[in-house]
Amino acid sequence: MAAAVIAAVASSLCCIAPLIYLVFGMSAASLSGIEQLSWLQVPMLVLSTGLILMGFWRLYFAKKPLCTATLSRTQMVWLYWLTVPVVLAFQLYPFVLPWLLEVFE
User: Fold this and answer.
1) pLDDT confidence of 34, banded at 50, 70, 90?
2) Which of 7-11, 22-26, 88-92 is predicted most confidently?
3) Do the Cβ atoms of 31 and 20 come closer than 8 Å?
4) Which of 15, 27, 34, 98 has the greatest CB tally within 10 Å of its CB?
């Protein structure tokens, strides 16, 4: 789950500069280098989606999920379904944010 969250965050790094600029009022000059990471967006989206799907498979279809010694299956299911919206938010906000800004103009 942690790897999926990290991959989702990495996929949104190219688009985080305008968001930081709007939210915190930072100087755009300090964020000019972040756009060079845009080539990572698609591979990180694929990686985070694959990791989420692998976690789903391990929880629901594997005979013995990982970490059963430290967490119960119920706890792992709760943790999984709490993590999925976070991953989806990071994956989709670069695509949804421009649409929201256009709608609420």
Assistant:
1) low
2) 88-92
3) yes
4) 15
Taking residues 52-67, report their average pLDDT: 83
Q: What is the pTM of this model?
A: 0.65
- State the CB neighbour count (10 A cutoff) for residue 35: 12
* H or E stretch at 44: helix 41-60
Q: How many helices (H) and strands (E) does the chain have?
A: 4, 0
DSSP-derived letter for residue 88 is H
- The phi, psi pair for 27, rounded to 5°, reads -70, 135
Neighbours of 93 (CB within 10 A): 16
CB 5 within 8 A of CB 86: yes
Between CA 70 and CA 68 the distance in angstroms is 6
- Return the pLDDT at 99: 82
